[in-house]
Amino acid sequence: MAQPTYEWRPPEHGWREQDLADLPDDGNRYEIIDGSLHVTPPAGYGHHWLADEIRSAIRASAPTEWMIIREAGVRAPGGNLIPDITVLKPGAPPDGMWADPAHVALVVEIESPSSRRHDRFTKPALYAEAGIPFYWRVERGDFGPVVYRYELVKGVHYNLLGTVGPDDPVEVTEPWPMRLEPSAWPR
């Protein structure tokens, strides 16, 4: 049996943001949910390519003072999450590791086999609790990406605004008016 290449011990207390700095920079995504460490293996090239294309599409229509960041950390109640794409409002600090949710307008999660349940159930609940106004979940289907668009309602949960598939480009208004065309994105 192979020995681990990195020796670490879980903290004596629940996991906290400062504990993440002690973990290896090995490509895994380390997130904290209610004091528990969640580790997701690195995503494949297709996942990153799709994330880059979605980020570029959002960036192309963004007002200049907005920041669209790949894999930026976001603080959430009871933890720290790393969405695939984070849209930061004007006035957000231009650098840092963990965004305050008050500075976040939209988070985008692209489903992978290893993240499907978190992207559908766990993360939306935490993003809603953090007060993030919009959440998009992207599924990579056989015919192309499908975007499920959600809006925060009463600061408690997300309601589905609609879906955008590869055959139905649409104008959306969140967090500003833009056209989404998933047919232009990789499968």
Characterize the structure shown.
- Helices cover 17% and strands 35% of the residues.
- It is α+β, with helices and mostly antiparallel strands.
- The chain has a single domain (44-184), classed as tt1808, chain A (Alpha-Beta Complex), CATH 3.90.1570.10.
- The radius of gyration is 17 Å and the shape is globular.
- It starts with 28 loop residues before the first strand and ends in a 7-residue tail after the last strand.
- Distance between the amino and carboxyl termini: 37 Å
Gross morphology is globular
Q: Give the CATH level 1 class.
A: Alpha Beta
Taking the sheet with the most strands, its summary is: 6 strands, mixed
Query: What Rg do the Cα atoms give?
Result: 17 Å
- Averaged pLDDT, please? 91
The residue fraction in helices comes out at 10-25%
Strand order of the largest sheet: 3-6-8-9-10-11
Percent strand equals 35-45%
Stretches with pLDDT under 50, minimum 5 residues: none
CATH superfamily: tt1808, chain A
Question: Helix/strand/pairing class, anyone?
Answer: alpha+beta
Order of helices and strands: EEHEEEEEEHEEEEE
Number of beta strands: 13
What name does the CATH topology carry?
tt1808, chain A
Count, helices? 2
CATH architecture: Alpha-Beta Complex
